[in-house]
Design a protein that fits this description.
11 helices, 2-enoyl-CoA Hydratase, Chain A, domain 1, 52% helix, 4-stranded mixed β-sheet, alpha/beta
Length: 263
Amino acid sequence: MSNPELILYDVKGRIATITINRPDKANSCNVAMLKRIHESLIKADQDEKVKCLLIKSSGQRFFSAGYDLKEIQGSPENVTLITEWGRKINQTLILMKKPIVAQVQGIAVGFGVMVILACDLKIIADRSKEELYLRLPEIAISAFPQTGATLLPLLAFGLNYAKNLLFTTDKVGLEELKNINFPTRIFPLDQLETETLSFVKQLSKYQTEFLFFIKSMLTIMNKGFIKSCFDLEDECAKIAYATEKKSMKELDEFIQGLYKKYS
């Protein structure tokens, strides 16, 4: 299977659908796939026919296991590329004018979680915690939380729950997500595809100006904050990954500098 086939792009009526199509690898994303996702997002945003986007994945077990860690291992160049394109995707998802719906049928980890959080609406399958959960494992696997890993949980869940997810790396199942009003809709797994499509079709019938302006107004109100958060993650990552480690005093001085810079 060639790289373009790992990310499917389709337009029917007013809806553009992006499908992560790598179920044999838990729908994990390599650099080529990230570039293709970003290209598809831009294409959909510029298409005059498209009013809404749907993001989903193939198979039943995983929505996405995140970045392809095998591609990262031993390759600083690929780490840089994955970080660059991961940020581009999540920033585009937040800032583009067209509403985006995530269809979640299974487990999401790392970048997979971030994509869901960056989407505007979330349609989730009614499954047990063993079959469907969200998990941000960065601290447990010595991967610095970038490309929106701190910003997106903050926007979606608030400060307290974002800290909980990032420090504990706990799996968060549907019942917990329901308690914080996270899912937009919940459907049985065997009805998820048809019900999600019906939901997005209804969304696409609303007046274009209303759809675009509602999302854009909310985004514009927070645009400076959103960009500075992505920048802050990248700036901290450079220090976290530096070969020469800083003392506690040096880290404190660096953090104080960040407070001044980002206040």
